[in-house]
Design brief:
Elements (H helix, E strand, L loop, with lengths): L1 H5 L3 E5 L5 H10 L5 E5 L11 H16 L5 E4 L2 H14 L4 E3 L1 H11 L4 E6 L1 H6 L1 H9 L5 E6 L3 H7 L5 H16 L4 E5 L7 H8 L4 E4 H15 L12 E5 L6 H9 L6 E3 L4
Parallel strand pairs: 1-2, 1-3, 2-9, 3-4, 5-6, 5-7, 7-8, 9-10
This protein binds D-glutamic acid.
């Protein structure tokens, strides 16, 4: 039975294509694993929506991935993790990995002065989920400075990672955070790793950036390893990409986020 489960795919979902930054890290670290990715492109963005709506969306994305017989679920979307991870962990029988906990854990390890910054969508910041997780994890007193940076999402999708407009927007969003003397900044949104260089340039070299995508991949690997669920059938891996809506620009943006040419994506209806 366990042998069969081992060879099932890892399911990953996001509100859209941003979660491909998380998929990229998982694919790089776990090169043998089959991947099923679902991007809810018909209902993106989640980052401006209420908890109730995001939880409803998460139920349907999860049900779709469960119908694909996955062995582990990765909630690549920070907003979905912020609002729905507890619900999923309570209700699913398979392991569930969100992006908030791995990012918070890494930040707690890296900070020397206990001052941690968090940036994300309006919903992620409003949820206070990074703050809650950081306070749970850190044993010594910490100060948390949070800031929503909604314009980073369209800038990353537009491919403006090295554009001066992005640097100006980053300065406007992050100037105050820099002054607050944080020594670690959590990139709490799927799109922000694309803008890492610009964000690093604005924050300066003393501030360490935590890439939630990288940390999530490490936690996924760790769970599969400790639960004896790493794939071992030795066959070539399979990757399937599903979207709930198609768009003309999708393929080029997706390939950039994924760091390799995007394979064919199938459009599906989910309820
Ligand atoms: N994937 C979302 C997140 O990480 C960003 C895009 C959206 O707002 O849906 O929060």
């Amino acid at each position: 039975m366990k042998e069969e489960i081992k060879n099932q795919a890892i399911g990953i979902f996001d509100s859209g294509i941003g979660g491909l930054t998380v998929s990229k890290e998982i694919m790089n670290l776990l090169c043998e694993e089959n991947i099923v990715y679902l991007g809810d492109t018909a209902r993106v963005p989640y980052g401006t929506k209420s908890r109730r709506t995001v939880k409803k969306y998460v139920e349907s994305t999860t049900n779709f991935l469960l119908s694909k017989n996955i062995k582990l679920l990765v909630v690549a979307c920070n907003t979905a993790s912020a609002y729905a991870i507890e619900m999923l962990k309570e209700n699913l029988e398979i392991p569930v990995v969100g992006v908030v906990e791995p990012g918070a854990k890494r930040a707690s390890e890296l900070t020397a002065n206990g001052k941690i910054g968090v940036i994300g969508t309006q919903a992620t910041i409003k949820s206070g989920s990074y703050e809650k997780k950081l306070r749970e994890i850190c044993s010594s007193p910490i100060e948390i400075y949070s800031k929503p940076c909604p314009l980073f999402v369209p800038l990353a999708e537009e491919g403006w990672e090295n554009d001066e407009t992005t640097a100006l927007v980053a300065e406007k969003y992050l100037g105050d955070l820099r002054k607050s003397e944080i020594d670690v900044l959590i990139l709490g949104c799927t799109h922000y790793p694309i803008l890492k260089n610009t964000i690093a340039g604005v924050m300066g070299e003393k501030i360490r950036l935590v890439d939630s995508a990288e940390e999530t991949a490490k936690q996924t690997e760790n769970i599969l390893r400790t639960q004896g669920l790493l794939r071992e059938d030795g066959k070539a891996r399979e990757m399937s990409f599903y979207l709930t809506d198609d768009s003309e620009t999708f393929t080029s943006i997706a390939s950039r986020f994924l760091g390799r040419p995007m394979e064919k994506a199938e459009v599906v209806d989910i309820v």
